[in-house]
Design brief:
By secondary structure, this protein is α/β, with parallel strands linked by helices. It contains ten helices and eleven strands. The longest helix is centred in the middle third of the chain and has 29 residues.
Length: 300
């Protein structure tokens, strides 16, 4: 496919109230895109709209809602299509995160990951991609997955269930949509300095444990700014790239996963073993002895 220019393109961005979504909205406005924005965080979304306006960008429509709510997505899509017609670019950025070993993760963790990170983008795709296909103008779809959608990182089972799922959807659509002139980009960031760092749920771990805090500080030192990811996304759209990286460590990790499977599996197991040292022991009822199983800290 030829290069793709965002200037004048009607562009939807979810998760625009903060982090990568906000940075991408500002970057896209800077190259002349006409924006349609949403986020579950109403005040954050309003702040992004104000920031785009002060920078001279255009937000034609914005509305706070939860992308996991199919009825809300449907109403939002119907309003946009009635007033503006089909869009040109759709970016699924909204997401949440929770980590933990399988014995610590609760049903709510699994369900929320799939509802927001996988079904949310699917809802957006369902309501916005068919009109794009019917319009026949081509366009572009961006799905923000994660390094955890490429590499089985420790404690990421629930999160990876959603992000690997989004990767699968994206890879199929890459081929399905090509004949309609619609490109697909799968964005796979590593560490990013967003609010998720502070709100991240880690089942079975004491967040006040100095070792956990040390690990978080190491993560923050390696994490990139949201603007770096936003720039990578815009470059990926322009060049019609499928896999979009924001850091070379993830690029190398995925390359190693495909080319050197035995050492890759060894490194992953060692990493998992190191992470497991941070687990909080669970006491057996009626006994002073602890078991090897663990759960999230909290009242007995």
């Amino acid at each position: 496919m030829a290069t793709y220019d965002l200037r004048g393109k009607k562009t939807l961005i979810t998760g625009a109230g903060s982090g990568i979504g906000r940075a991408t909205a500002i970057a896209a406005a800077g190259v002349g895109a006409e924006l349609f924005l949403t986020d579950i965080n109403g005040p954050g979304l309003a702040e992004t709209v104000d920031m785009v306006g002060r920078a001279g960008g255009t937000v034609s429509h914005s509305l706070p809602f939860d992308v996991s709510d199919f009825d809300a997505v449907t109403a939002f899509a119907d309003d946009i299509h009635a007033e503006f017609g089909s869009l040109d670019v759709v970016m699924n950025v909204a997401g949440i995160s929770a980590w933990g070993t399988v014995e610590n993760l609760e049903h709510r963790h699994w369900k929320s990951m799939v509802d927001v990170n996988l079904m949310g983008p699917i809802h957006i795709i369902e309501k916005f991609l068919p009109p794009m296909v019917e319009a026949g103008r081509g366009g572009h779809l961006v799905n923000v997955s994660s390094a955890a959608g490429l590499i089985p990182l420790p404690w990421h089972a629930a999160y990876s269930a959603s992000k690997y799922g989004l990767r699968g959807v994206s890879e199929v659509l890459k081929y399905d949509l090509k004949r309609h002139g619609i490109g697909v980009s799968l964005v796979v960031p590593g560490g990013v300095k967003t609010g998720l760092v502070d709100t991240l749920q880690i089942a079975g771990v004491d967040r006040d444990d100095p070792r956990v805090q040390k690990l978080q500080h190491r993560f923050e030192k390696r994490a990139v700014e949201p603007s770096v990811v936003a720039d990578a996304i815009l470059a990926g759209i322009a060049k019609r790239k499928y896999l979009v990286y924001s850091s070379n460590d993830i690029r190398f990790g995925y390359w190693m996963a495909r080319k050197f499977s035995p050492p890759y599996e060894f490194v992953l197991q060692r990493a998992n073993d190191q992470f497991s040292k941070l687990l909080v022991p669970r006491r057996v009822e009626g006994s002073s002895k602890s078991t090897s199983s663990v759960r999230a800290p909290g009242p007995e």
